Amino acid sequence: MTKKILLSVFLLPAAMAFAQQYGGMWIPTELNEKEMKDLGMKISAKDIFNTQKPSIKDAVVQFNGGCTAEIISPKGLLLTNHHCGYGQIQAHSTVQNDLLSNGFWAKNPDGELPNPGVKVDFIVDIKEVTDQILEGTDNLVEPELTKKINKNIEVYKNSQKIESYQSIIVKSMYYGNKYYAFTTETYKDIRLVGAPPQSIGKFGSDTDNWVWPRHTGDFSMFRIYAGKDNKPAEYSKDNVPYVPKHYLPVSIKDKTENDFTFVFGFPGKTTEYLPAVAVEKIMTDIDPARIAVREVALKTLDEKMRTDSETRIKYASKYASVANYWKKWIGEVEGLKKSNAVEKKVMYEGSLVAKNHEIKATLDQLNKLYNDQAPYALNNAYYTEVVRNAETLKLAGDYYDYIASVEAGKMDDKELTKLKTKVTSFYKDYSAELDAKVTAKLLTLYANKTAPQFLPIGFAKYKDENQNVPVIEEMSKNSIITGRAQVNGATLTGDIEKAFSNQDKLIKTLKKDPIYQLYVSMKETYMKNADPQFTSLQGKIDELQKKFMAQQMATDKDRKFFPDANSTLRVTYGKVKGSTPRDAVSYGYQTHLAGVMEKYIPGDYEFDVPKKLIDLYNKKDYGIYKDKTGDVPVGFTATNHTTGGNSGSPALDANGNLVGLNFDRQWEGTMSDINYDPRFSRNIMVDTKYILFIIDKYADSKWLIDEMKVIK
Ligand code: ARG
Ligand code: ASP
Fold it and tell me: Where is the signal peptide (predicted)?
């Protein structure tokens, strides 16, 4: 044994015990009840998840496939984030009646607004089904293995008796080492009840995104409607408010540091069990590549958005979504460095090998595979991000798929309508001139950062940005994809039906289009020189990751394992807590309305404050919503281990009462998706006091509060 490994083994128990302190996203049927109780929980695991009688899980739903939401009244009143309901609020907005800017509050149930297409999913039951799904797979290798598993999943699903409005979803856990079946129930009549104006619901916008101290009232309210029998039903004005099996009482008691909390929701994706080499690649190759691409796109957009308000409105939502993960990845890299994630993993691997020497072979192979894959993975990261952020190329990709589908004889009326709708809605918020600039700059980046074997022939000419901008502008002007040139006597951005009227002509023109040809050269080079190698190595990595996961679980008996997030229902728990993320910097756990006013910049698009809120602040008209400081609490942080998808999740106290609404994480801890560290990882929630204060005092919608069970 080398000195390094000896040292690591010696240091490890303390390091691991620390890292394990509260992280984890637990399957609700497998909770660490004892640890939760030791931390202060007063209810039992059965109160959280029970299929025999009502439990807290009956009040928690997945909101429209992405976020989480919870029921807070006996009449199916639903609470989620403003950024989760954003699309619906926007869809009800017009220039004359801009609900995003003004907010919206139904005066009574009749005023609630339907949202066709929006659904919520309840989890009715969870069962481990590993034996059924892995039956007869012992001696199989890929691709037979996956085929057999998929067949077993079908057999299992067909063997279960469910209602017409229910589904069964089988999900792999621990990289294919276990399988779980979820019975879900879907309600489809979901109406908008209320939303504060953006100046409250999105206060601080991109500048404050991922940042603590935070002052955003990121909430909106919906209601679930059901048929007269309380069962799911398609939208009908005769539907009635859903009567839930359970709804969350809302506590407006003061919070104290170290209070127990748990968060119940649908976290999307984490990768906590990767080998050190994988984390190192994310930190040094993948994240920096993605960040670099988005940085160029954002900077170019920002220059224009600052001087032109039409562009600012058009690109606001896109800019926010590009900026969201750009900022997240920067925080993630910093956090991985600061938490010594790679070193910690290396040490951990040393300790595993010391206990079970077979693990060494797995790790050696993983190391080799990740290193072999590195150049392809890097190209994959640059290629995907460039094509996603150079909108002109992304559009070209849609037309490329269209031609491929026509040529394969797969294009029917339905597919064609889908494509036309997709590009039409894209063109609505698209500026060809601006994107020509973004595309030119991204091509420069791609030409300079990409190894020659991954570049199309002749691509070196894009290396110089100054030459490039006019060249791409010229291509863009002569392209039908950008809507600046015509086909069939029309532009695709003007009269799409006419532009599609002669499809042979359209396809011929596309194939000669300068932007289309540029895209094809990039795509085909990527598909030939990088993608097959990348994908085939990834297949091998996945197989070994499954083995490595099983070995970790079999070897590290002291560790409590939880499966990585995969958009299934989970519980995470911890304590209300501030943090000390940097030298001499220390964060309190709670923000207040006074802090909103400290950030107030009149007329600013991120930090304006609505007049009525300023009036309430000046009059100190806080009613029962102030805390011991005399001010209204706005946000708070805790050590709950959350990720994307947990937005809108309820934060509950020791008694299972709602105390906060999860919506974000603190920047210094966003590496928690890869390496949760209780020193820096904090989830950010809106305080229930602020939510009720806004509903009652700001929106004069006391009728909604009267529906709730408020714990004072
Ligand atoms: N960072 C949070 C999450 O990942 C909130 C995002 C919405 N807000 C924004 N300014 N883009 O979803
Ligand atoms: N803001 C994220 C969401 O929308 C939550 C997070 O990443 O912490 O789900």
Answer: 1-19
Active site residues per annotation = 83, 218, 647
Instruction: For residues 94 and 143, state if they share a domain.
Output: yes
CA distance 379 to 398: 21
Amino acid at position 217, single letter: G
Considering the domain architecture, whether residues 231 and 325 belong to the same structural domain is answered as: no
Query: Is there an atom of ligand 2 within 6 Å of 581 CB?
Result: no
Are 196 and 311 contained in the same domain? no
pLDDT digits (tens, 9 = 90+) for 178-194: 999 999 999 999 999 99
Q: For residue range 511-531, list pLDDT tens digits in order.
A: 999 999 999 999 999 999 999
Q: Is the CB of 644 under 6 A from ligand 2?
A: yes
- Among all bound ligands, the one having the nearest atom to the CA of 683 is 2
Q: Are 672 and 628 in contact (CB under 8 A)?
A: no
**Which residues span the domain enclosing 438?**
276-551
Among residues 603, 301, 248, 283, the alpha carbon closest in space to that of 435 is found at 301
Say if residue 7's pLDDT is above 70: no
Distance, CA 80 to ligand 2 centroid (Å)?
12
Check: CB of residue 672 under 8 Å from CB of residue 251. Answer: no
Q: Which residue's C-alpha comes closest to atom 2 of ligand 2? A: 644
Flag whether 348 is in a domain: yes
Q: Residue 16: pLDDT above 60?
A: no
Beta strand 250-251 with 710-711: parallel, antiparallel or unpaired? Answer: parallel
Of all ligands present, the nearest one to the C-alpha of 684 is: 2
